[in-house]
């Protein structure tokens, strides 16, 4: 999405459509009030007569507005002023952008940066506006023989009333565009069927990102022979039942001025299809197990955003990719495998495979002497039971890291919730025959899964994000969400800011 920022009088803005947010039962925003005066109180009369209900998310197209430079205006309800906070603002944005994509126009102007939100500046509002625009124009119909006509909207101009906010709005719009495109990349990878998006396909996507990065991204792909030589038997064990070969994908971004600066590492679970293996899942809903690589997809989306933003920090992105299938070579319940770390694991359930690929990836991350490691995985159904589909589950061995991720989630409005990782839960993983079992029973399933991973993250600050409830939608809206690309990108941007402060650059 192309964008620009203007401080022009909105009444004189020449555009195919001018998007105007309005409150329900309250005064008009200053910029909208100017437009109301210029249009002979068109907007005020529509509200007073009840021709437009400014309830949250309602939209109404006005095809002709006398006295304005715009060909048409689009009214968007913000709901009650007192209740218009971040969630309402984003809902109104989404409604507005969806409505815009249905119009036969290629550009529009919007005044959302003028909506007052406590604690949110023009950077944040512009960022969320462009993110919403990118989400709205997204389509996944490449497998339909007759896809619907793609939206024509290609440019959005942000009208800013205060000239001092213009640089901030430009900064925010650039961030929003980059993050929005990263989110859409994640959505596409998630939405692709398992017969297309395989471990080898993910490896090819990494190589493509490297080629297009102009040297900013170094890519290494470890195949099964390399993983065997390395001793990554836990990762390999998951893919034994599949004809699709397992891959460990490593992408290194070096943006810090000091090449020796410790990198921040993101690790994604890339189970491109999960049948459950020998512990076979029920048939109902199994089609959605193509989304079990949501963690990997979010890492790829974050890489795309990072390459566009170019933050001054070092980062390593690791994806453990495999397909979990049941055949004669598949790992069986009761099998004991050896991890890259050297610990042995009794596999009690082959459907708890995500932790088996992640544990070797976490051990592999040690070689980078990381400043922090965050893994992202659609790991447990228990996370959905605990948190529904609103918040990502967060567990960590480092309280400062956990707070940094929570703060990043609040800034990005891609929120997480901190769950305990107490030692008392660890004993649920005791095994009679190996160093630990891969499951700890039904109680506290999300926590014990993180406890398992924590055994392989004892040499660095580490956090685990369980996105089982946030990575995709089911039902009529079935599809990948792109979460938590916003959170992850913001986390890295915050680390860049921290480094600049420490180095005296800010």
Mean pLDDT equals: 97
Cα-to-Cα separation, first versus last residue: 30 Å
Sketch the major β-sheet. 8 strands, mixed
Q: How many helices does DSSP assign? A: 14
Cα gyration radius (Å):
24 Å
Global geometry: elongated
Helix content: 25-40%
Q: Can you list the strand order of the major beta sheet? A: 7-8-10-9-13-17-14-15
Number of strands: 19
When the domains are counted, the total is 2
Highest-level CATH class of the largest domain: Alpha Beta
Provide the β-strand percentage band. Answer: 15-25%
Supply the CATH architecture of the largest domain.
Answer: 3-Layer(aba) Sandwich
State the secondary-structure class: alpha/beta
Poorly predicted segments:
none
Topology-level CATH name of the largest domain:
Aminopeptidase
CATH homologous superfamily identity of the largest domain: Zn peptidases
Binding site for Mn(2+) 1: 274, 351, 353
Keywords: Aminopeptidase, Cytoplasm, Hydrolase, Manganese, Metal-binding, Protease
Pfam families: Peptidase_M17 (PF00883), Peptidase_M17_N (PF02789)
Cofactor: Mn(2+)
């Amino acid at each position: 999405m192309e964008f620009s920022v203007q401080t022009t009088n909105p009444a004189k803005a020449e555009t195919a459509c001018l998007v105007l947010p309005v409150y329900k039962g309250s005064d008009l925003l200053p910029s909208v009030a100017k437009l109301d005066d210029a249009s002979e109180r068109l907007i005020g009369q529509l509200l007073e007569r009840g021709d437009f209900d400014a309830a949250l998310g309602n939209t109404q197209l006005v095809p002709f507005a006398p006295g304005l430079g715009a060909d048409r205006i689009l009214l968007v309800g913000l709901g009650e002023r007192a209740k218009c906070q971040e969630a309402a603002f984003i809902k109104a944005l989404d409604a507005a952008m969806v409505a815009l994509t249905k119009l036969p126009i290629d550009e529009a102007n919007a005044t959302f940066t003028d909506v007052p939100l406590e604690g949110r500046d023009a950077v944040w509002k512009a960022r969320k506006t462009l993110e919403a625009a990118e989400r709205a124009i997204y389509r996944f119909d490449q497998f339909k023989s007759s896809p619907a006509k793609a939206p024509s909207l290609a440019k959005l101009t942000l009208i800013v009333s205060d000239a001092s906010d213009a640089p901030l709005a430009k900064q925010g719009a650039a961030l929003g565009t980059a993050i929005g495109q990263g989110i859409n990349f994640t959505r596409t990878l998630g939405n692709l069927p398992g017969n297309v998006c395989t471990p080898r396909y993910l490896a090819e996507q990494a190589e493509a990102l490297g080629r297009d990065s102009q040297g900013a991204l170094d890519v290494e792909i470890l195949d099964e022979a390399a993983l065997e030589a390395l001793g990554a038997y836990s990762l390999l064990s998951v893919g034994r039942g599949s004809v699709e070969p397992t891959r460990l994908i490593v992408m290194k971004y070096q943006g810090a001025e000091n090449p020796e600066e410790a990198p921040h590492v993101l690790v994604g679970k890339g189970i491109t299809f999960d049948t459950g293996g020998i512990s076979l899942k029920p048939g109902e809903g199994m089609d959605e197990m193509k989304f079990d690589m949501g963690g990997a997809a979010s890492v790829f989306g974050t890489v795309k955003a990072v390459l566009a933003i170019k933050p001054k920090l070092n980062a390593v992105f690791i994806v453990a990719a495999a397909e979990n299938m049941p055949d004669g070579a598949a790992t069986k319940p009761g099998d004991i495998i050896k991890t890259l770390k050297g610990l042995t694991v009794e596999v009690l359930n082959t459907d708890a495979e995500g932790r088996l690929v992640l544990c070797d990836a976490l051990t592999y991350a040690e070689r980078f002497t990381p400043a922090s490691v965050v893994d992202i995985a659609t790991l447990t159904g228990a996370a959905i039971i605990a948190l529904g589909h609103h918040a990502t589950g967060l567990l960590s061995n480092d309280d400062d890291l956990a707070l940094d991720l929570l703060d990043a989630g609040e800034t990005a409005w891609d929120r997480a919730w901190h769950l305990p990782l107490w030692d008392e839960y660890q004993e649920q993983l005791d095994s009679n025959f190996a160093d630990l079992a891969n499951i700890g029973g039904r109680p506290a399933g999300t926590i014990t899964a993180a406890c398992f991973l924590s055994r392989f993250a004892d040499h660095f600050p580490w956090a685990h994000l369980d996105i089982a409830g946030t990575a995709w939608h089911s039902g009529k809206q079935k599809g990948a969400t792109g979460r938590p690309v916003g959170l992850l990108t913001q986390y890295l941007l915050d680390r860049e800011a921290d480094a600049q402060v420490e180095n005296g650059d800010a």
